[in-house]
Automatic annotation (TrEMBL):
GO biological process: one example: cholesterol metabolic process
Key words of the record: 2Fe-2S, Iron, Iron-sulfur, Membrane, Metal-binding, Oxidoreductase, Transmembrane, Transmembrane helix
Pfam families reported for this sequence: KshA_C, Rieske
InterPro entries the UniProt entry points to: Cholesterol_7-desaturase, KshA-like_C, Rieske_2Fe-2S, Rieske_2Fe-2S_sf
Residues in Rieske domain copies: 65-169
Record keyword Isomerase present: no
Protein's organism: Trichomalopsis sarcophagae
Family statement: Belongs to the cholesterol 7-desaturase family.
Transmembrane segments: none
Gene3D superfamilies: Naphthalene 1,2-dioxygenase Alpha Subunit, Chain A, domain 1, Rieske [2Fe-2S] iron-sulphur domain
Compartments where found: Membrane
Cellular component terms per the entry's GO annotation: cytoplasm; membrane
Name the record gives this protein: cholesterol 7-desaturase
Pathway assignment: Hormone biosynthesis; Steroid hormone biosynthesis; dafachronic acid biosynthesis
Amino acid sequence: MIVEFCTACALAAFVTLVYLCFFYKINWIRDLTDTDPKSSSLMAKYRTNVNQTLKNLPPVYPNGWFGLLESSSLENGQIEHVAALGQNFAVFRTESGVVRVVDAFCPHLGANMAEGGKVIGEDLECHFHSWRFCGETGKCTTIPYTKTVPSNIKAKVWESIEANGSIFVWHHAENVAPYWWPQKEEAIAKHSLLYQGRNEYYVNCHIQDIPENGADWAHLGAIHGPAMLPTDMFTKIMHHRWTNISWSTTSQNEATADDSEEQNKEKHIAYLTLHHDLILFDKFSILTLKVKGRQVGPGCVEINLESALGPMFIVQTVTPVQPLVHRVTHTMYASRFASFYSKIVFIGECIMFERDVRVWNHKKFMHNPALVKEDRTIKAFRKWYQQFYSENSPTYESCKASLDW
């Protein structure tokens, strides 16, 4: 009896371990109040302090590609309503599997086609009067109670693309067509790196504050140096060490190339490299990671991690859902062999990111910050980021006046 019981326990433990290692996927979600109970009052704080907090804010919706949904959340024939960037999008996947993004509101009488409409072949049908619109062109293809469909009736179509497990939409204040596109990671497309989990946060700050962290190397020791479990006991025996840190608008490969035209094509990309170690007893180094990141426009970061157990890849998306509230996601990919290890790394990333969120939720954007010479990468980042603003980029005040959120 005892032998059978021990065998059953061992088998159950083995099955559980196999499930956690190879089948369990992390889904770590935090809204504003989860990361900070005081955050529900933050928007009121911003609105009542317009002169001091909002007067010199940069535009709130930059130009670029922004993640609306994860690909896995949209099946063939499914529609989702996404409010972001001051717009309402109907995001749907046609019956042939192609993702389309159109204005959610029907040009007929304004019904929200994402809330009750349905996909018919390659078209989106409005539930109010059964008008149909082509997902590719936006043209009205069917009006059931008329023989002639006017050729000028169209739903606005937004440029979109699926890449690395996310659905991106192109937003530009001057209605400029995309001049760069998110690139698909070959290892994800070929399934040599597999999905391991995701997180999702809602953050209350200016959008520029979030990617600026990548250029702010000095915050790593202060915010991310203490152990993941910051109790007195753990703080004494372990800490995180960040070394070999660099941020640049040119990659190491490009830095030696005399190819200004190629660099100009990729001026929307910035590069980050660093090494991470977890130090035990100020002596032993474990969890060593070599990190190479690419900030691709204002709304996406691609992070390659080299570990002793193989490569890992994280995709970060930052999407404004209101002028000062952003949906931030991270999606982890790793080889099957590194599956369990990648989950440990990813949980650590979740905990570390929440430390940043608590800072962002209570800071204000400093238009003219007091910087020292060691902060030069912050200054370089701000100069680089300016390319994503244009003459008609929405400001907080213009959004407030039009209620575009």
